[in-house]
Design a protein that fits this description.
Elements (H helix, E strand, L loop, with lengths): L3 H29 L5 H24 L20 H25 L2 H22 L24
Helix pairs in contact: 1-2, 1-3, 3-4
Length: 154
């Protein structure tokens, strides 16, 4: 049986891994997205980089070694054009929302509040990319996931 601190550290590591994947994915999005949405992609990229750095510090503060970024990640589908880049951006946000929901469940206090804020931000970005929202961001998308964290595959 794991302790609450161990569960929180695992959830932090999973969130960090998802942020690494999101940063990578937004590099792909930025290369394919139409000019009129490039600022939106850059803003999301910057937000994920900042969140990644915060999570790495939190993992270290709990005595863990922050999970490293992979050299590359398998994308969930080909991204040949701007329309696919928009779908990828929404997918990245859905995945981040999923691990943030895990962190909300595992964390307490200020870290829980921060995770809830990150979940909300990912859900809003996903809705903006998609042009609509889902009923329970971070939960509904994971119904068929079958694993506790839905991150991109390195």
């Amino acid at each position: 049986m794991s302790t609450a601190a161990e569960r929180e550290l695992r959830a932090l590591q999973a969130a960090l891994a998802a942020e690494h994947a999101a940063v990578y994915g937004y590099g792909v999005v930025g290369g394919k997205i139409h000019e009129e949405r490039r600022a939106q992609a850059r803003s999301a990229y910057d937000a994920h980089r900042a969140r990644r750095d915060t999570l790495a510090r939190q993992v270290a503060d709990l005595g863990g070694t922050p999970v490293a970024s992979a050299a590359g990640y398998a994308l969930p589908f080909p991204v040949p054009d701007s329309a696919a880049a928009v779908r990828l951006a929404a997918e990245l946000e859905d995945r981040v929302a999923g691990v943030c929901s895990d962190l909300v469940r595992a964390a307490t206090g200020r870290r829980r509040q921060e995770a809830a804020g990150a979940l909300r931000e990912a859900a809003v970005r996903a809705a903006r990319w998609r042009g609509g929202s889902v009923a329970f961001p971070g939960l509904a998308e994971r119904a068929g996931a079958g694993s506790p964290s839905a991150t991109a595959t390195p």
